[in-house]
Specification:
By secondary structure, the protein is an alpha+beta fold. It contains 4 helices and 6 strands; from the N terminus they run H-H-E-E-E-E-H-E-E-H.
Length: 163
């Protein structure tokens, strides 16, 4: 798959932010793919607009995206999406495997008592998906916020009704 951004773009972004890759990191092409896969897997269904071509590899470019009240041009991947994928790639380099979580949403411990010590954890409501165990990166969330649908608002569909 083709990642968001390029190796040269990553190097420019990386150096401008003063980051350093740890020794033994996977090669840059692999990191860029992992970062892009993370962006699409975690945020893809929440991006505004719709994919331009249902056969395209990535969630961007998109049609019909409205960002900050203005139409976002078709055929363009936002710089914020590219930079977010770079940050995710950097996260994966510094903590390999941190972009993916393996777990179960079936049961969690609410209260645990060992001897005299008793601890109650805040309960988490699960919708049966991996959302409750998905690793989130606050920097990436912030970068992508303008490009995400507001999930608290009902979705408006376009319907064609024949008479």
């Amino acid at each position: 798959m083709t990642p968001y951004g390029t190796e040269q773009g990553f190097d420019t972004w990386f150096n401008a932010n003063g980051y350093t890759l740890p020794s033994g990191s996977p090669d840059l092409a692999a990191l860029l793919n992992r970062g892009s896969q993370y962006i699409d897997a975690v945020y893809g269904s929440r991006f505004v607009g719709r994919v331009e071509d249902p056969l395209q590899e990535r969630q961007w470019p998109r049609d019909g995206a409205i960002v900050n009240g203005k139409a976002f041009p078709s055929g363009v991947v936002p710089t914020a999406v590219i930079n977010a994928s770079y940050y995710a790639a950097y996260q994966e380099a510094t903590a390999p495997g941190s972009l993916s979580a393996v777990g179960s949403t079936v049961s969690t411990v609410k209260r645990e008592k060992v001897g005299q010590l008793e601890v109650e954890y805040q309960s988490h409501q699960s919708d049966g998906t991996a959302l409750g165990i998905t690793p989130l990166i606050s920097m990436v969330d912030g970068m992508l916020a303008p490009y995400l649908r507001d999930l608290s608002q009902p979705s408006i569909g376009i319907w064609s009704i024949g008479c």
